[in-house]
Structures are given as structure tokens and as C-alpha cells.
Task: structure prediction
Amino acid sequence: MNATIYKIVPALLWQEARRTGRFDGAPVDLSDGFVHFSTRDQVAETAARHFERQTDLLLVAVDAAALGDKLVYEPSRGGALFPHLYAPLTLNAVIWEKPLPLGADGKHIFPELAP
Result:
């Protein structure tokens, strides 16, 4: 499927991942039993729907191939396939992390995204 997938993470929560070398998930991930990701085409809607007007967020780009068979694409909103990781995210799969600031219009400003 997608070579790069994306995770929106509160900066404070990501600090723990940097310290331990793995990200077990945000509260919603822990509750659902998997780490939620978005593809390039889905991430802006994810930000608008689940992180509206939130500040101090990071956008984390992840090499999907590095996650192996624990990464599963499953139907969600309107039947779209979303990447779900049924394991902790190890930081060796992270390509980059960048701030996800809010623009004057209250929407997040995204860096250039890989396919």
C-alpha cells in the first residue's frame, strides 16, 4: 500500500516515545487496541476531525514497510482503508517528525508529504 504513513501526536506524549524508543499509542490507540495512522490523502481530514484547533502537535512520518505484518489496512470512515498498527511503534521506523502548527484560519499547516 503506502510507503509512508503518518501519525499526529501531542508533543508531550511524543517525548516519552523519544525517551523509551517506542510509542505505545495515545489514549484512543490504547483504548482501540492499535495505533491509528493515516495515509497522505487522509491525514488532513484526520487533523480536522480529531485534532481541531489543537496546538503543540507533531506530525510523524513512518516507513510502513518497516512495520511488517503488524500493520493492517482496515476499513473506517466511508469504507476508506486506514493503516492500523497492532504493536508499539518503534522509533527505528520513523522517517521524520515535524511540528504541525495552526494557521490563522485555525487549520493545521502541513509540511510536504511523501506518497
Observations:
- The chain has a mean pLDDT of 94.
- Helices lie at 11-20, 27-32, 43-50.
- Strands lie at 4-10, 22-23, 35-36, 57-63, 71-75, 81-85, 89-90, 94-99.
